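Help wanted!
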Amino acid sequence: MSAVVTIIRRELLAYFTTPIAFVFLVVFLVLAAAFTFYLGGFYERGIADLQPFFQFHPWLYLFLVPALSMRLWAEERHSGTLELLLTLPLSPWQAVLGKFVAAWLFLGLALLLTLPIWLTVNYLGDADNGRIFSSYLGSWLLAGSLLAIGSCMSALSRNQVIAFVLTLVASFALMLTGLPMILNIFRGWFSQFWIDGIARLSLISHFGGFQRGVIAWYEIVYFILMILFWLYATVVVLKTRRVG
Amino acid sequence: MLEARSLCKSFGPIQAVKDLSFSLEKGTVLGFLGPNGAGKSTTMRMLTGYLTPTRGTALIQGHDVQSDALAARQCLGYLPEGAPLYAEMTVRQFLTFIARMRNIPAAEIPERLGETLERLSLTEVACQTIETLSKGFRRRVGIAQALIHDPCVLILDEPTDGLDPNQKRDVRRLIQSMLDDKLIIVSTHILEEVPALCNRVMIIANGQLQADDTPQGLLETSRYYQAVTLQVDDSQAAASALSDLPEAARIELKHHELTVFPREGAELLPLVTKLAEQYQWKVHNLRLEAGRLDDVFRRVTTGLEA
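Answered by r_m:
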């Protein structure tokens, strides 16, 4: 366990000693605000809730999470530090988990920094804070899922641009598996039972419940399983690379 | 202490390492030599558990690097090729990170850190970020991370590559100062440093072990071993006189220097000096050859004479 904590600390240090943290947080906050106020019509709606804020989170994450996750493994592989890291006395699982949790905590910090908008909405009217809390939780879980996908894609390549593009495509597909465009790809090969199953994987529809203020245990389990699946895939990719 | 058991590694159709077995004891400084692409780094990566062997395995202090990887790695310090480091960290931050990963108790870390910085003359740059350091300093940081936990097996992949002569000497001194209680494996293609540094040499080529001996033992297999090289005013006359010696197997003239190669077991030096006195040659230079490693290296790795 202490190995995981040490990795988390090193990763967070790396974010904050390079311009990554500053640039990412500023861009995240500016874009979140722009979406909320211009596209979401926060004031024009005349309702004291954060619906216009949260509804754009999936699209914000679609571009920003791959930008954060692309460096996770591709950079280590490119600079050779992967060899240093993986010959230290820790298991690949610990390394994967440590790097993921650090990035996830960092995204959590980005979300925490949006708290002024929560204060604003409470100042303007009688907001449903339970619903806002569940939306924050759902948003963080969604970000974690995309981050775990990005971790796996980053382990596949030493090139960060490739990692970014692969993550973007995989995230987009998983967000919208419910759309006919995606389902039609599978229709020729699978029975309706499986097509329905694939449709239910959609990240956006699982986020929807949280936005309505429902914290269902099976929704949390869904996101946790999604994260664990992709982290496991990351471990498998790293191990496969070692076999050569 | 370290044992390689028929290590094999294939990358697709390419066999990088073919059935490599050896065993090493503490107090050994092994020079691991071979041409580029011979399989040196691949072998080291298998010993450290970074690459999974296609067949075979290795044991460090009795721990299998595959099935008991964490215990094996705990006894091991490793400098990967090119000394990769986290460039955005300061030297102190980086070494603290490594010390924590190596399970050094938190209370001991400051002391251990101070010792290691001192030992590698890194104290003055401890608070600089690694990306601002020169190549020599970076290499030393790489070595520092490999020995901060005082491992009993140290594997250094080209530790002196790209360093200036003073830095090379410093690294060699450091390695020799640790000799007593450790096993040290050093890969290099700088042959001159091998006799000064190592007490055992392995040469691999095409993924196979081609020679395994002491540096002296290897030198003795050189065709230059016990040969006499001299520089005189009239090389032609001297060459014809020397060729009449029954003990001389062969004479070569290169860059105005004559080299006389002995027949098996013959002692040439007294005979050559006697001839020089007899014919009153004006001798500018006369030396007994100790053998040349580059000659051995070339013969062992390519089958050709230097």
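OP: Thanks! One thing I noticed: Chain B has a mean pLDDT of 89.
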